[in-house]
Design brief:
Bound molecules: coenzyme A
Strand content: 15-25%
Shape: globular
CATH architecture of the largest domain: 3-Layer(aba) Sandwich
Strand order of the largest sheet: 5-4-6-7-1-8-14-13-11-12
Radius of gyration: 19 Å
Largest sheet: 10 strands, mixed
Order of helices and strands: EEHHEHHHEHEHEEEEEHEHEHHEE
Distance between the termini: 12 Å
């Protein structure tokens, strides 16, 4: 399977650390910078709307009913347009669309179907694969199987996340971590110029840890932060090293590393322990926050023009479930 184009989209609204200082939750910009290394995040919500949520002047349901929250299909369409504009083959007829999000507009139908309808796509199979922050890697894993079996020739993968709509804005531990984003990746069984070949993919889970990261129906996001941080570092390293070693590659032979954008400290600790130099570590968490499943692929997309022929790219993610996984890509 080849990823021959990818696009990203970030909403315009900026939630910077100074904004959280004004939110009256005893958040400190210095604490955030030192402990999680995040300076700003993008949100489908304006600062005023977040302030209203914080002080109980509105609710997510009310904002949704007013049409004030950008939909998953709208966000996906914007990243799709970027992917199409970058694509050397804009006319490929898609036979498979895989959507994925932890924060859908509706429980039914699948986001894959709603997104496909928005884009005017018909006569294809459209469905969702969701695995919280690991979703993009799991989607690629599933798509790889479909392509290998011959069932899929041309496909698209969508991840759109809006965790900022599911935060308790009186909770300084979690509300400062998240931002919103979407991505669209175009994939094919054919090698087109400039493609990234998916050499290998890895997905593993430890379901006994499911309660550590939880977004209960109708409630707010919750995670056992310190414990999850240890898991995130350990499994980022394991996922990256396992996929390299089973493909007979050393860490020094991969040109680029992209991790789950949970926080900057977790990422730099993981890279330091693996011996990855700063110049090979790609990230956007400092000014985009944790964008859930859209984080790692949005970094992949932002750096699309940097990859040179033959470069290996390792994408290693962790997420609720607990789940972790990785991709080994090579620029053609
Ligand atoms: C959540 C996280 C930032 C917390 O970091 P931490 O260093 O463990 O900090 P703690 O939560 O123990 O908090 C330490 C103190 O700082 C305080 N604090 C938390 N957020 C704060 C903020 N925004 N401003 C000021 N102080 C803050 C806490 O209230 C606590 O104070 P207390 O002991 O008086 O209650 C961190 O655990 C994290 O990012 N985890 C990773 C999550 C992850 O990888 N997820 C992946 C799957 S999505």
């Amino acid at each position: 399977m080849y990823i021959y184009s990818i696009g990203h989209y970030f909403p315009e609204n900026i939630l910077d650390n100074a904004f959280f200082d004004r939110l009256d939750i005893e958040s400190s910009a210095d604490w955030i910078r030192d402990r999680v290394g995040i300076e700003a995040r993008r949100s489908v919500l304006t600062q005023e709307q977040v302030m209203d949520l914080r002080h109980g002047r509105t609710t997510r349901e009310q904002l949704k009913a007013e049409g004030a929250i950008e939909t998953i299909a709208s966000m996906s369409e914007k990243s799709w347009k970027m992917a199409k504009a970058r694509s050397p083959d804009v006319n490929a007829t898609l036979d498979t669309v895989i959507g994925g999000t932890s924060v859908p507009d509706d429980d039914i139908p699948s986001n894959g179907c709603v997104i496909s309808n928005r884009l005017g796509l018909e006569h294809l199979r459209a469905f969702d694969v969701n695995s919280a922050c690991s979703t993009f890697v799991v989607q690629c894993h599933v798509m790889r199987g479909l392509v290998a079996s011959g069932l899929t020739k041309e496909g698209a993968i969508f991840c759109a996340e809006r965790y900022t709509t599911r935060m308790d804005y009186s909770d300084r531990r979690n509300s400062i971590l998240f931002g919103d984003a979407s991505i669209a990746a175009l994939v094919s069984s054919q090698n087109r110029p400039g493609s990234l070949k998916l050499i290998d993919s890895l997905v593993e889970s430890s379901p006994s840890g499911w309660e550590h990261i939880h977004l209960p129906d109708g409630k707010f996001f919750h995670q056992n932060g310190a414990q999850v941080q240890k898991f995130a570092i350990t499994k980022t390293i394991a996922a990256a090293q396992d996929i390299l070693s089973r493909n007979h590659l050393k860490t020094s032979e991969a040109q680029w590393f992209i991790g789950h954008q949970a926080n900057y400290r977790m990422l730099t600790t993981s890279m330091e322990k693996m011996g990855v130099p700063e110049s090979r570590h790609l990230f956007n968490v400092r000014d985009r926050g944790n964008q859930g499943a859209a984080g790692a692929p949005s970094v992949l997309s932002q750096n699309w023009d940097r990859y040179q022929k033959g470069d290996y790219i390792v994408v290693a993610v962790v997420g609720a479930g607990l789940t972790w996984g990785s991709l080994l890509l090579q620029k053609q």
